[in-house]
Amino acid sequence: MNIPNNYQWNSDVSRDFWDSLQMDILISDQTLSKDDFLSCVERSFMFSMFFRGCPPLELIGFQKILNIRANGYVLIIEISERNNSNSTELTIDEFSLHHYIKNTMHRNIAVGPLIRNRISILVSDDAITSESDHKSDSISLCQDLVKAIETQFNLTVSIGIGRMQGLNSIYTSFIDAHSCLYYSSPEKVLYYLDLKQEELNTHFDYLLTEKHLVESIRLRKTDAYDYFGMIMDWIRPLSDDTKRNKILEILVLANHAMRIDSQKEMKSMNYTSYVNQFMELKGEQLIEFAYQSFITITSYVKPQNSIDYTNHIVMATREYLEQHYAEDISLEDVAEQVNISPQYFSKLIKKNTGFNFIDWLSMLRVKKAKELLTNSDFTVKEVCFMVGYKDPNYFSRIFKKRIGITPSEYVKTSSYLNNKS
């Protein structure tokens, strides 16, 4: 199946197909441990803190559940796989990395979601320590963490460290840590006070940085966040009126860059609303608002296992699976149809849908089997062959793994419910 550049598809059909299967897979996944569930809660907390906004009552609730203290600072870890030129395409299991960080640091921490190739960590404490103690302790902590992650996962790691703050003002520490990452070399730990304003502005070309920012947004590259951070560092000492003008200008450019070449309809910015809010903010509040707005506009924050409906391989895979699920097909067969190697196809499907190819195929077959068992008089054995399985016993095991009961038990349950209704 060759995929032309002008490949057309039905948006609603594709979304229904993937969303329905994704939900079925998530529901059928019985492997999450207690630690995994706590990891999900932590990621939700960190996502709310830095990317969505966390109302006071919600913050109090998270603090009690996760035992988060009143003060702390933010670390942001940037990771890339060795010998991989594209640092944003990571194959690492997020749960494994999350648990390893928790077990290695031995601190009161909350670990955020893996967003592209970065993870934010909140290190909380009861009191705010002196600057010198905070610097020496946090650098030592991060240097140990870099070595541990690199050894365990064969990754290249760098870490930015933010200042200590009360929890209600922790976003400042988040910005500190992000600023450090742009100036930090791989396998290096950088503390926010080591970024001197004179160094930040050395050889800084605003127009060139703005150009790189727009181009990176258009290409959906992670370094757009770094260019944005450089611009925010440059405008930070300026007057509030100048900040407002520059921030609004950058956000408009970012929004326009996101809309160019986009294959999906995007919501326009409410410029009047932005201007009204700008007039009420001052100083660092303007910088924080700019970061949050930039994240929202560029959509760099995606829910875990989100599906890229615009990817041509994802579209073609959906079409092929729906047409051939009843046949004896394999990952290699589909990869050949879309003209890419099996290894790259496997990696691409996992990256753009959140699950492996075999998860999608088996769940689709089980879904079709449920429809046949519910709405026809076919036997379990007949349905087994009709949805692409050759061995009824294997089909029964797959069905039970996904649904929780065997096909025969499902037929009995469905019949009972139909008779009762």
Description:
This protein is of the alpha+beta class and 421 residues long. It has 3 domains: 36-195, 2-Layer Sandwich (Alpha-Beta Plaits); 196-301, no CATH class; 312-420, Arc Repressor Mutant, subunit A (Orthogonal Bundle). The chain is built from 19 helices and 6 strands. It has helices spanning 11-28, 34-52, 56-66, 94-105, 131-153, 171-183, 197-201, 206-218, 223-235, 240-259, 271-280, 284-298, 312-324, 331-337, 342-353, 357-375, 380-386, 392-403, 407-420, and strands at 71-81, 109-115, 118-125, 155-161, 165-166, 189-191. Strands 1, 2, 3, 4, 5 and 6 form a 6-stranded mixed β-sheet that branches. A hairpin with a 2-residue loop joins strand 2 (109-115) and strand 3 (118-125). The chain is globular. Residues 1-13 and 301-305 have low confidence and may be disordered.
Summarize the structure.
With 421 residues, this protein is an alpha+beta fold.
Key terms:
six-stranded mixed beta sheet; Arc Repressor Mutant, subunit A; 3 domains; 421 residues; alpha+beta; Alpha-Beta Plaits; disordered N terminus
Give the DSSP E fraction (strand runs of 2 or more residues).
5-15%
Tally of extended strands?
6
**What Rg is obtained from the alpha carbons, in whole angstroms?**
25 Å
N-to-C series of helices and strands: HHHEHEEHEEHEHHHHHHHHHHHHH
Overall residue-averaged pLDDT value: 81
Helix/strand/pairing class, anyone? alpha+beta
Topology-level CATH name of the largest domain: Alpha-Beta Plaits
Number of helices: 19
Oligomerization category of the chains in this entry:
single chain
Number of self-contained structural domains: 3
Quick one: CATH class of the largest domain? Alpha Beta
**Ends distance:** 45 Å
CATH architecture of the largest domain: 2-Layer Sandwich
* Helix-residue proportion: 55-70%
How is the biggest beta sheet arranged?
6 strands, mixed
**What do we call the CATH homologous superfamily of the largest domain?**
Reverse transcriptase/Diguanylate cyclase domain
Unreliable sequence segments:
1-13, 301-305
| Shape assignment | globular
